[in-house]
Amino acid sequence: MKAKFLIPLVLFIALTVLLGIGLGLNPKEVPSPLVGKPAPRLSLPALDDPERIVTTEEFLGKPWLLNVWATWCVSCRAEHHLLVELSKHTNVPIVGLDYKDEADAAKQWLRQLGNPYVVTAFDEQGRIAIDWGVYGTPETYVIDKDGIIRYKQIGPIDAKALQEKILPLIKQLQEEAA
Amino acid sequence: MRLITPLLLVLALWHGQSLAGIETRQFESPQQEKDYKELVFELRCLVCQNQNLADSNAELAVDLRNEVFRMLKEGKSKQEVLDFMVARYGNFVLYKPPVDRATSLLWFGPVIMLAIGLLIVIVFIRRHRNRPGEDNPDEVIPEDDF
Question: Is B99 helix (H, G, I), strand (E, B) or coil?
Fold first, then answer.
């Protein structure tokens, strides 16, 4: 009889815990279906040289990062110094994807804040970004030597994400490639 | 006052319709127009997540509407457009998610809850019937029984 009396309480606690977990999730983080799949094709003019076409193929064979950014994006400014640090302390190529931006503003941004990118692809229309499932900036993809997307960082990279997720993954992927 | 209320109602209903036509589109057939409208109403905008593509003014929503239109013009079917979106953004873009393992609770949960509720009601009623007098204080017990 006593146990029966506890049933609503147990149900209530279970529901509260469930809803509590739900509240803690970030609805802005939509898991990408592209993780574990081959990276979509990239075929865009470089920001500093419209004659040069940046393609996905040229990065095959070693792990690399694709960072989607824009000058109008406030969080991109916040993460930029971490990318600059990353480019100084590791040898993993970081490719920029300048999303729906103005070329002059973007060039000025790189001059002022430092350029962590081996090359920046300029996606003025945002058409290629759709293929990559970009729905906000910044976003960062980690791609392995076979061109498979292994991780997607949605939102700015912070020190925690860098230390716990991105750096260990890069290390692992570089060992795989070696 | 008598006039204002229905007028407001009409305006409120009109609003949702008019937003779907922000861009002027030249459709090739009524079917294409119907497909387009259904698609932009069924697809979720990822930037402002509680709006569909038709209602959202986010830049990405504009781009995706253009993409939907371009694909339909190329002769792609509705399903092909949906597959295109799901391949890039996942099932999250669909306001009507497919029935699979991950969404089974979403689809069948309400039916299961209803079944559990019915079961509880049935058990409760049966118990009452089997033990008259004990669970039902209103029942008059004849004095002779004492």
Answer: coil
Task: State in words which class domain B24-98 has.
Answer: mainly alpha
| In a domain? residue A137 | yes
pLDDT tens, residue by residue, B54-93: 888 888 999 999 999 999 999 999 999 999 999 999 888 9
Domain chopping of chain B, boundaries: 24-98, 99-130
- Torsion region of A161: left, alpha or beta (phi above 0 gives left; psi -120 to 50 gives alpha): alpha
The domain containing residue A163 runs over which residues?
34-177
Q: For testing the chain B interface, which of A30, A32, A73, A137 should be mutated: the one with the most B CBs within 10 Å?
A: A30
Terminal-to-terminal C-alpha distance of chain B: 70
Q: CB–CB of B90 and A30 under 8 A?
A: yes
ipTM, 2 dp: 0.79
The shortest CB-CB distance from B89 to any of A28, A125, A135 is to: A135
3-class SS letters over A34-80: CCCCECCCCEEEECCCCCCEEECHHHCCCCEEEEEECCCCHHHHHHH
Closest CA to B61 of B78, B73, B43: B43
**Please, is B22 exposed, middle or buried when counting C-beta atoms within 10 Å of its C-beta (0-12, 13-18, 19+)?**
middle
Phi, psi of B49 (to 5 degrees): -65, -15
Number of domains in chain A: 1
Q: Mind telling me how many Å the CA of B84 is from chain A's nearest CA?
A: 9
pTM, two decimal places: 0.77
Alpha carbon A70 to its chain centroid, in Å, reads 13
